[in-house]
Design a protein that fits this description.
Length: about 180
Amino acid sequence: AEDPVEYRLPRITQVQVNPKVGLTFASVLRACLRQDPDVVLVGEMRDQETAEIGLRAAMTGHLVMSTLHTNDAVSSAMRLIDMGAEPYLVASSLLGVMAQRLVRRVCDNCGTDYEPSAQERVWLTNLVSEEEPIPEGFKHGSGCYQCSNTGYKGRIGIYEWLEMDQGTLSALRRADP
């Protein structure tokens, strides 16, 4: 279930939601589950009804994958609870959460070696653990015609994976909606 369908994929049944005719994420998800799929992909968990149907489908053995707008992986479970899903349902259904951020990539054409300032080194030292050395080989884009004089061209993904363990699950079960 998507809004809109961005890429047509072979061997996958894709449905574009259309709330004007009653074709919501929740109604598509309900109809889809009647066909007993192994994997269900929901474009986005936007409301309580969709979230609860997805979580219940996960409890009955379906692998449900969806997107959810949050700032990081940890806040995803709380976002589901804030949307109205019961904490026990979230705790019983989630296996893991992956968060994604896209950051700008330094242009390969105009990127030059760069030495961080003393202030930037202090900031970097606070970011890495004591066992890790500060990374070397910094680059800085000066701007060129290929990057429209921004110094950046393209993006790269940074991912955070949260696997639900017993401590996390019991904290979720105690969460107060």
